[in-house]
Specification:
Elements (H helix, E strand, L loop, with lengths): L32 E3 L13 H11 L20 E6 L6 H14 L4 E6 L3 H15 L8 H14 L4 E8 L2 H7 L6 E7 L3 H5 L1 E4 L5 H12 L4 H10 L4 H14 L3 H10 L18 H15 L3 H10 L5 E2 H5 L8 H12 L5 E2 L5 E3 L2 H13 L3 H17 L11 H19 L6 H16 L3 H18 L5 H16 L3 H18 L5 H16 L3 H18 L5 H16 L3 H18 L5 H16 L3 H18 L5 H16 L3 H19 L4 H16 L3 H18 L5 H16 L3 H18 L5 H15 L1
Parallel strand pairs: 1-3, 2-5, 2-6, 3-4, 4-5
Antiparallel strand pairs: 7-9, 8-9
């Protein structure tokens, strides 16, 4: 069932051309940063010193300051990049992990392990590193945060290791490798193209001597001939030998007995004939024999192993698996079961024990077994249920930012399930609901670069799977429209809102809450486009219907009152806006509590209305107390807290206190660029605000260029007719006028006035401001 939390666009915060920006304060640099799911050193670890020596020959000695590059690393030299290649199961990842363990032992300041199969995984891993480095800002776009981590790695003069594990696309990896600096980059891959682009180290299967030594150490059997026969049977593949040795040791078998079991194993009962990329010799039999032995000893493994086979190969965090408690397996039992399964070598933990790893080849065999036996769809359904149980514990809306790490866990696991489902019999409604939630969380985090494509694909999938008129399909349309609106793309948002509302009115009951939500959202889009003539009546009817259907104290009703007051304020009707804000705030305190995020938003909005009315004596103290409360309740880095700081800076400017306003605006813009990206509508608003403050201070040398770049970017991103673009043109004309360049100012005012009349109407407040400015300029 679709959660009502997925309906977006409910509350609009009143503010001038201002923005929400997010900032994590720099964290003290710890002695050592170890990031990512570095595999633990397994009991079966076989040192391969000749390969480590080859790595050292490329990457350089482990002693800090040494590098294989003649420039010695640092800011002046090119980064050292090594690609470790080889077939599945030869030990590429464990070799890279060996180098990472050595770097840790040498106390390198940064050792980062990034899953690199997809761009999304790379963004997530590098963004997490940025957080650890103190470079990430709250509510960060993952790609922007990842770029900051890359920049840090390129600039550092201290030794750092960056591992891209299981990289798939060379060009993608090239984009995310630091070009300079002391960072050493290690790539593991099956794609041989990497070996042509970067310094190669190719990993082969064990030599006969290595295989015999490995089996002797793991099994304790003194039978060189038997070890040689088994190694030959398995092609000396390290992964297969590890699986075989585990079973031999656990069951106290001889090599000869194990070979008999292996050759007699009815693999045709478990796997279909392979097409395309075949398994290495004997590998499927070895893995299946290990799995069936484990499932015999540990019956619950029959459920857990297939689940791990369809979840992310980059690792499954323990909090996700703890959600199995919803399926009747207690957390303590899950933990014990995982510990027991590590003894079978089918899984391992990452280095800090926070995630479970299953080799991709093991995953593939177990998935193929499930598919052959007709169980794969059932396993995928179980995995979807597991993620729904995990998702049920996650917060949404204003609290999503605090649960960013858990949200990224959900997104990674859901993306993996989506990939496997694409190769199966079709998508389930429950999986699409998970995808919808992932889009919702990204929207809440202002990560529109990921939210919009995810919403678009999910909408297309729902139309195909559920039908165009299914309520969940309509919810996807609504949320995609909300994402377009937040990105400033009203040309796509408004038509999509309109068709969604029409379809909901046709499909759902007359007073269905989703219809009321669609009306509210469409009214908000009209207002964003400056069409208050349609926005205000629609807000008014939505409020009346919500009071009748939901009651006067329902949170959605309170939101409708807030939004109607906001529209009145935008229309300059403060005589109706302020009393409505005041009653909404009083009701919010009574119904929701003084510290509820919506109540704090109501305070912010009332302060904004006071400011619009010129009552700074009430506006500034209310902004200040709202900021203090948001810092206490939501945290200093919460998006709404940063919005309060931004609005307070604007109020200081209105009061003539530029000494406090300009620094606050500058910090806000810097944070917005880092957090949201240069083209985000809120970043563009922040630039406009800073330019306005510079102009107020008489610093036209900084104001005019900033206005010009803001206008150019708004025309490119939002279009020439967007209300914010018209505001930018007016502001630039005003700056030219202040600089004494009346000719340019008048031409720009005239063009802006014509466009404002055409787009917004003759009586719109923006049109009136532009007309007044033109008249003043002409008089001079």
């Amino acid at each position: 069932m679709e959660a009502t939390a997925s309906e977006q666009g409910r509350v609009y915060q009143a503010a001038r051309d201002l923005t929400v920006n997010h900032h994590y304060p720099p964290t003290p640099e710890p002695d050592q940063i170890i990031e990512g799911d570095i595999p633990q050193r397994p009991p079966s670890f076989q040192p391969r010193p000749h390969l480590l020596q080859r790595l050292a020959g490329v990457l350089g000695d482990l002693a800090p300051g040494q590098s294989g590059d003649e420039d010695g690393g640092g800011n002046g030299g090119a980064a050292v990049i090594c690609a470790v290649g080889g077939t599945p199961g030869v030990g590429k990842t464990i070799l890279a992990a060996s180098y990472a363990w050595a770097c840790q032992a040498e106390r390198w300041p940064v050792v980062a392990w990034i899953a690199a199969e997809t761009t999304a995984q790379i963004h997530t891993g590098l963004a997490s590193l940025a957080q650890r480095l103190g470079e990430r800002r709250a509510d960060d776009d993952a790609a922007t945060a990842a770029a900051r981590a890359k920049a840090w790695l390129a600039a550092t003069e201290r030794p750092a290791l960056l591992v891209f594990d299981n990289a798939a696309d060379p060009e993608t990896i090239r984009r995310w490798c630091p070009a300079t600096g002391a960072t050493r980059v290690l790539i593991t891959t099956r794609n041989r193209a990497f070996l042509r682009l970067f310094e190669p180290v190719e990993v082969e299967v064990f030599t006969p001597e290595q295989a015999e030594a490995f089996l002797h150490r793991r099994t304790g059997l003194d039978d060189p001939g038997g070890a040689e026969a088994l190694a030959d049977e398995l092609g000396h593949l390290p992964l297969a030998l590890d699986q075989a040795a585990t079973v031999i040791a656990r069951l106290r078998l001889s090599y000869e007995t194990y070979l008999i079991l292996l050759r007699d194993f009815p693999v045709a009962d478990y796997l279909s004939a392979q097409h395309g990329d075949p398994y290495p010799a004997g590998t499927a039999e070895v893995i299946l024999l290990s799995a069936t032995q484990a499932e015999t000893i540990l019956p619950e493994a029959t459920e857990l192993l297939p689940l791990l086979a369809v979840l992310s190969p980059a690792g499954v965090p323990l909090p996700v698996l703890h959600a199995l408690s919803a399926e009747g397996i207690e957390r303590v039992r899950v933990q014990q079961l995982l510990a027991d399964l590590t003894d079978t070598s089918l899984i391992t933990f990452n280095e800090d024990g926070s995630a479970v790893l299953m080799h991709r080849l093991v995953q593939r065999v177990l998935r193929d077994r499930a598919a052959h036996q007709g169980h794969l769809n059932g396993v995928l359904s179980q995995a979807v249920n597991l993620l729904h149980a995990f998702n049920a514990a996650l917060p949404d809306g204003a609290e999503t930012w605090a649960a960013r790490a858990a949200v990224e866990m959900l997104i990674d696991q859901t993306n993996t399930l989506y990939l496997w489902t694409q190769t199966g019999d079709g998508l389930s409604a429950d999986l699409l609901s998970l995808r919808h939630w992932c889009g919702q969380y990204l929207y809440d985090l202002a990560d529109l670069t990921r939210a919009i494509p995810l919403y678009e694909v999910t909408l297309a999938d729902r139309e195909r799977v559920l039908g165009a008129n299914h309520p969940n399909t309509l919810a996807s349309r609504n949320n995609l429209a909300s994402a377009y609106r937040s990105a400033g793309d009203l040309g796509r948002a408004i038509p999509l809102y309109e068709t969604t509302l029409a379809d909901r009115e046709r499909v759902l009951d007359t007073d269905h809450p989703s219809i009321l939500a669609s009306r509210n959202n469409l009214a908000g889009a009209y207002q964003a486009a400056g069409d208050l003539g349609r926005a205000i009546p629609l807000y008014g009817t939505t409020l009346a219907d919500r009071e009748r259907v939901l009651g006067t104290d329902h949170p959605d009703t309170l939101s409708s009152r807030n939004n109607l007051a906001y529209a009145y304020q935008a229309a300059g009707d403060l005589g109706r806006a302020i009393p409505l804000y005041e009653t909404t705030l009083a009701d919010s305190v009574r119904v929701l509590g003084a510290d509820h995020p919506d109540t704090l938003s109501s305070r912010n909005n009332l302060a904004s209305a006071y400011e619009s009315a010129g009552d700074l004596g009430r506006a500034i103290p209310l902004y200040e107390t709202t900021l203090a409360d948001r810092e206490q309740v939501l945290g200093a880095d919460h998006p709404n807290t940063l919005d309060s700081r931004n609005n307070l800076a604007g109020a200081y400017q209105a009061a003539g206190d530029l000494g406090r306003a300009i620094p606050l605006h500058e910090v806000t813009l810097a944070d917005s660029v880092r957090v949201l990206g240069t083209d985000h509508p809120n970043t563009l608003s922040s630039r406009n605000n800073l330019a306005n403050a510079y102009q107020a201070a008489g610093d036209l040398g900084r104001a005019i260029p900033l206005y010009e770049t803001t206008l150019a970017d708004r025309e490119r991103v939002m279009g020439g007719d967007h209300p914010d673009t018209l505001t930018s043109r007016n502001n630039l004309a005003s700056a030219h006028q202040a600089a004494g360049d009346l000719g340019r100012a008048i031409l720009l005012y005239e063009a802006t006035l014509a466009d404002s009349v055409r787009v917004l109407g003759t009586n719109h407040p923006t049109t009136q401001v532009v007309r007044n400015n033109l008249e003043v300029a002409l008089q001079k």
